[in-house]
Amino acid sequence: MLARNQREVSAANVCYVEADVFDWEPPTTYDLVFFGFLLSHIPPTLFERFWRLVDSCLRPDGRVAFVDEDHRIAHYDDVRIVAGVPVASRKLADGREFDIVKVFWEPRELATRLDELGWDIELRPIDGGYLFGTGVTHEWSHRT
């Protein structure tokens, strides 16, 4: 996907990084951090760590935004618990099959967890079983 995006975007102001998100450290801070279809793949045991990383990427007054699948489409997957982690199987076009982490968040449950971690996130269901979130840390929420 990185190579495809580089071909299609080809912009000098875009930096591409391939890394394990839990080993990566941001080289700078940003006004906005956006991620799409990633949150549902964060293991529950790493949820807090992930949000600390997002926070470390933001400038003061920075915002976060994300989109992902939510609980309304969970019935399409055969999610099972393996070693305390929700997983689903995915079969690729070449026939290989993998187990992936798959957490279908219910908006109120996600909002509560994020609030406990110091985030002020507005969650909005989108047609088709998707969830859009945007917000700031509590530290900056009084300014927005």
**SS element count, helices:** 4
Poorly predicted regions: none
- Mean pLDDT across every amino acid position: 90
Find the structural class using helix and strand composition: alpha+beta
* Head-to-tail CA distance between termini: 34 Å
- The backbone outline, from C-alpha atoms, is globular
- How would you spell out the order of helices and strands? HEHEEEEHEEH
Extended strand count: 7
User: How are the strands of the biggest sheet laid out side by side?
Assistant: 1-2-7-6
Question: Which characteristics define this entry?
Answer:
single chain, 144 residues, alpha+beta, Rossmann fold, 4 helices, globular
Question: Could you characterize the architecture of this molecule?
Answer:
It is a single chain. By secondary structure, the protein is α+β, with helices and mostly antiparallel strands. It has a domain of 91 residues: 3-Layer(aba) Sandwich (Rossmann fold), CATH 3.40.50. Helix content is 23%, strand content 35%. It is built from four helices and seven strands; from the N terminus they run αβαββββαββα. The protein has a four-stranded mixed beta sheet. A three-stranded antiparallel beta sheet has the order 3-4-5, with no helix packed on it. β6 and β7 form a beta hairpin. The model has no long low-confidence stretch (mean pLDDT 90).
Give a brief description.
The chain is an alpha+beta fold and 144 residues long. It is 23% helix and 35% strand.
Secondary structure elements and their pairing?
Layout: H1 2-9, E1 30-36, H2 47-57, E2 58-69, E3 80-82, E4 85-91, E5 97-101, H3 107-116, E6 119-126, E7 130-137, H4 138-141
Parallel strand pairs: 1-2
Antiparallel strand pairs: 2-7, 3-4, 4-5, 6-7
